[in-house]
Write a structure and sequence with these properties.
Layout (H helix, E strand, L loop, with lengths): L14 H35 L7 H36 L1 H19 L5 H29 L5 H9 L1 H20 L4 H10 L3 H10 L6 H4 L17 H23 L1 H16 L3 H37 L1 H21 L4 H6 L1 H9 L5 H7 L6 H16 L1 H12 L3 H10 L3 H8 L15
Helix pairs in contact: 1-2, 1-3, 1-4, 1-5, 1-6, 1-7, 1-8, 1-11, 2-3, 2-4, 2-17, 2-18, 3-4, 3-8, 4-16, 4-17, 5-12, 5-16, 6-7, 6-12, 10-13, 10-17, 10-18, 10-20, 11-12, 11-19, 12-13, 12-15, 13-15, 13-19, 13-20, 16-17, 18-19
């Protein structure tokens, strides 16, 4: 969309283009906010629903197992939602699809507050995952099609900065609710955290009311978006490239992030036992360390996301992905595989955020670059979300293996250290990655 004559530009984009970016930014940020709330409350939520005493060895083992299982279910539902609503976005439009998916995940998260057992929680989390998966494909396609060609990388990376901001918000609200206002009733505090899932709806709905469908979509070639077209001679190499990059990044991220609260809670309880703290002081230390670790992880993710812009524009998408994957492997191994003091291990979540989290800043512009307009949301949604099906195995295996160990913290750290091999596989897969530097969007 060209800027009107005399209209003020900021970073080469006019006011409406910034409005579109902000609307999609809110949607994706709240996606992550709603999607990750469970990880923050798992140490309190799981034992409560299983009628176990919070903090006991049995509760910690159960939390590891159910965190892995629920994260895997979330990823599978996320994948199904992304593929389904990617096709919907190519058929009915990007904006309408974002509104629909936002309503689904907001209501699903709110429903989690009323879960009466683990299986009702599974059902509500599956509903959340369907909505979140669909919103990404629609939002990424919308921003890629509305942003100027020479600012697509910046717009895509700025869109993904909403992910760490969504996690900052989740961290803040969980700390205020579980760590301050309801710190003495951990069996109930997690329900209030889930009620915060309704926050996204009103604000994002009001802004998206002013967002129109992109001109590229309105004037697209009127062809049906079919999944099988992603595997024809013309598009197969693009699809393979997107799927490979997404699988590596997703397995790494979800394996590290899904167990952040569990690992940090274990570290805090060991430290509390060493210092001779009572139960109340131990719970306070757990929430304080979770707050610190998630914030340094999110800060690293925010910086890493923004760094994809100069690297991708200067050197290209392939060198950028190779660099991030190599550094991801190194940061994962040092954080979980090296014997470190507890407080140092907390701060090591910063380089994990910088690399494992930061690489996702490229997917919001790289995946849309691979496909023509009539297949853009379908192709982007498929690549990004089919990776979640494969990634779902990571948290489940880590949780299952770690929960079997006599020392759950040591077992979790050992299992997570092996995840360092995943981004190394991504480096070896670089010959199959398609370079899209300086390529214009295909109509």
């Amino acid at each position: 969309m060209e800027a009107a004559k005399g209209q003020r530009l900021v970073l080469g984009m006019n006011g409406y283009q910034w409005l579109v970016l902000f609307a999609a930014w809110l949607g994706w940020g709240f996606d992550i906010f709603d999607g990750l709330l469970f990880n923050y409350v798992a140490p309190n939520c799981v034992p409560t629903l299983l009628h176990l005493e919070i903090g006991t060895p049995q509760a910690q083992a159960a939390t590891l197992y159910w965190t892995g299982l629920l994260t895997s279910i979330l990823l599978i539902g996320w994948a199904l939602g992304g593929i389904l609503f990617g096709k919907v976005a190519d058929r009915i439009g990007r904006t309408k699809t974002m509104l629909l998916t936002m309503a689904i995940y907001s209501l699903g998260t709110c429903a989690c507050a009323f879960a009466w057992d683990m299986w009702s929680l599974v059902l509500f989390r599956l509903l959340v995952s369907l909505g979140i998966g669909g919103d990404w494909a629609a939002g990424a396609s919308l921003v890629a099609e509305v942003a100027p060609e020479n600012r697509r990388v910046e717009a895509g990376a700025l869109l993904y900065t909403s992910a760490p901001m969504g996690l900052f918000l989740a961290t803040f609200l969980n700390f205020q609710i579980a760590g301050n206002y309801f710190k003495d009733i951990p069996e109930t505090s997690w329900r209030y955290v889930f009620l915060c899932g309704l926050i996204p709806a009103a604000l994002a709905f009001s802004i998206r009311y002013f967002v129109k469908e992109p001109e590229r979509w309105e004037h697209r070639e009127k062809k049906e978006a079919r999944l099988r077209d992603l595997f024809d001679h013309e598009h197969f190499r693009m699809t393979l490239s997107g799927v490979l990059a997404a699988i590596v990044a997703l397995i790494s991220w979800w394996s590290c992030n899904a167990f952040l609260s569990v690992v940090v809670s274990g570290l805090a309880r060991v430290q509390a036992a060493t210092d001779g703290l009572d139960k109340s002081a131990t719970l306070a230390l757990v929430e304080d360390w979770k707050h610190l670790a998630t914030n340094v992880f999110n800060l690293g993710g925010l910086i890493g996301t923004l760094l994809t812009v100069p690297i991708a524009k200067r050197f290209g998408r392939k060198p950028m992905l190779a660099t991030y994957f190599l550094l991801s492997s190194l940061s994962i191994f040092i954080t979980f595989g090296v014997d470190l003091p507890a407080h140092i291990r907390l701060y090591m979540y910063f380089p994990i955020g910088l690399t494992v989290f930061g690489v996702f800043g490229c997917f919001t512009y790289y995946l849309p670059e691979l496909f023509p307009t009539h297949l853009r949301a379908t192709g982007s949604g498929f690549c990004y979300n089919i990776g979640r099906v494969f990634a779902s195995a990571g948290p489940f295996l880590v949780g299952s293996i770690a929960s079997q160990g006599q020392n759950t913290l040591t077992a979790a750290l050992t299992a997570l250290s092996w995840i360092a091999l995943v981004p190394l596989i991504g480096v070896l897969g670089m010959p199959w990655i398609v370079e899209t530097k300086d390529r214009k969007l295909v109509d």
